[in-house]
# Entry
Amino acid sequence: MNCKSSFYLIFMVMFFLSCGDKKNEKKVAENKNSAMTETKIIEESEAINIIPIEHASMILEKNGVVIYVDPVGGNAKYDDQTAATIILVTDIHGDHLNIETLEGVVKKQTQLLVPMAVAAQLPEALKNKATIINNDETKTLLENVLVEAIPMYNLREEALKFHEKGRGNGYVINWDNERIYISGDTEDIPEMRALKNIDKAFVCMNLPYTMTVESAASAVLDFKPKLVYPYHYRGPKGLSDIEHFKNIVNKGDEAIEVTFLDWYPKP
# Structure
């Protein structure tokens, strides 16, 4: 083989190798873009949509599952909302339990989860639909939704008449890869401070019924949720100072995100 032929052969081999490398680079890039797109879709699909209704009432939506918490205020507040897959009721007081509203929002497919004290006040039709869960119990409602009942009660002597230990429930919802805490009516009890791995927390703060913003912030700094929403913060003297709550929390731990939602829309 002469020098010219050898040069030509070497050139052709290098050319095809170069083409192969470019194809591999393109394939790697396409796979990388595909993985990024898939990750984005997964993240978006797993986002929880939070709809504050008012005070203690809210709706949580994710991947076709809809959870109502303490639906009160009349059926009209829920007419434009997706029907509930699950309803959680925390306590017997009127800002958490309203029979007329429950009768309107509980559908054939709805799972209703309540403490014993709430079940005792339900009419027969709702009582037959209800599953009772008491403090420290756990119920699996769907394949990807497990609910833990957390104690909620008062500590201050002057407030013991409002919420006795064992009557009502706070809840931790284990939903896919998230743990969501709903405090119910409580003070900064040891059971709250001992919570672990909470992604989102809804924490009450109103006197004289629950606790001060300082007590709420102190508890949050103990159990360190990634994200906390002040809720249930209206009392006889108006709304609690949630900005003060945020300042205390962020002064103690900047990593905890405090987010405000519109719990008290103006008439």
